[in-house]
């Protein structure tokens, strides 16, 4: 499995890989620093991140993990003496490590901006935000990969980007509909970094300060990750693939 993940990283150098992993967190920090500046730069970086840039990053990541093989109709994978399920799992794990590293880089960039302009929250909140975003977004890696196998890249990207952005709206993530899996990250970020899904800082009496949503939100998305991983791994079979 380790060698398969290493092979995915090598292939990633010419796709999403290191460039995408660094590019998206840098853009989020750039927007925050130059459009918001000051103490709000940290909050703005995370808000830009999970509302707009993380949906794009995960969509491109899923496409990158599958698209090269799909263009060849998976012939290169059919010839390998390795079970399809093992290859699929290695791609999921690779995608999750990229997701973790992107959130870690955003934490680093936003922490540096906080040091320069005045921190708006302690480091532990940034670490918690990065960890929660990694956990609550991981289930979309296998789902996005499966969508790429069934549809073209444009449909996959637009679908994931649109539904994540719509579900992150204040009227959904900030209300009772926050339990929709796509809305959970935005809702959980509210009490962690003190900002509404729409980017406005939380009022002191806002009900969104309620931290009791964090554990249920994490539980829902963790269950979804194992469900999506199990279902897609069971369904995949390069040797009999006619998609």
Give the ordered list of helices and strands: HHHHHHHHHHH
Helix content bin: over 70%
Backbone shape: globular
Gap between N and C termini: 25 Å
Which blocks of ≥5 consecutive residues have pLDDT under 50? none
With helices defined by DSSP (H or I, 4 residues minimum), what is the helix count? 11
Main sheet attributes: strand count, strand direction, barrel closure: none
What do you see in this structure?
By secondary structure, the protein is mostly helical. 73% of the residues lie in helices and 0% in strands. The chain has eleven helices and no strands. The longest helix is centred in the middle third of the chain and has 34 residues, at 84-117.
List keywords for this structure.
mainly alpha; 243 residues; single chain
């Amino acid at each position: 499995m380790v060698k398969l993940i290493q092979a995915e990283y090598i292939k990633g150098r010419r796709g999403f890989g290191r460039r995408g992993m660094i590019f998206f967190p840098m853009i989020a920090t750039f927007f925050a620093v130059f459009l918001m500046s000051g103490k709000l730069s940290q909050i703005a970086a995370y808000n830009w991140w999970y509302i707009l840039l993380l949906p794009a990053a995960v969509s491109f990541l899923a496409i990158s993990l599958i698209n090269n093989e799909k263009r060849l109709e998976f012939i290169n994978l059919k010839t390998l003496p390795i079970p399809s399920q093992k290859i699929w799992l290695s791609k999921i794990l690779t995608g999750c490590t990229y997701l973790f590293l992107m959130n870690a880089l955003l934490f680093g960039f936003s922490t540096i901006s906080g040091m320069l302009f005045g921190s708006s929250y302690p480091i532990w909140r940034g670490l918690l935000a990065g960890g929660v975003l990694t956990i609550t977004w991981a289930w979309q890696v296998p789902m996005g990969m499966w969508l790429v196998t069934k549809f073209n890249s444009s449909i996959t990207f637009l679908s994931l980007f649109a539904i994540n952005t719509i579900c992150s709206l204040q009227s959904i993530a900030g209300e009772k509909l926050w339990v929709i899996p796509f809305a959970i990250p935005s809702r959980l970020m509210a009490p962690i970094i003190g900002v509404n899904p729409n980017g406005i800082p939380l009022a002191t009496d806002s009900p969104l300060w309620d931290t009791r949503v964090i554990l249920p939100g994490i539980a829902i998305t963790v269950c979804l990750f194992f469900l999506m991983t199990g279902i897609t791994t069971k369904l995949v079979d390069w040797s009999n693939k006619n998609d």
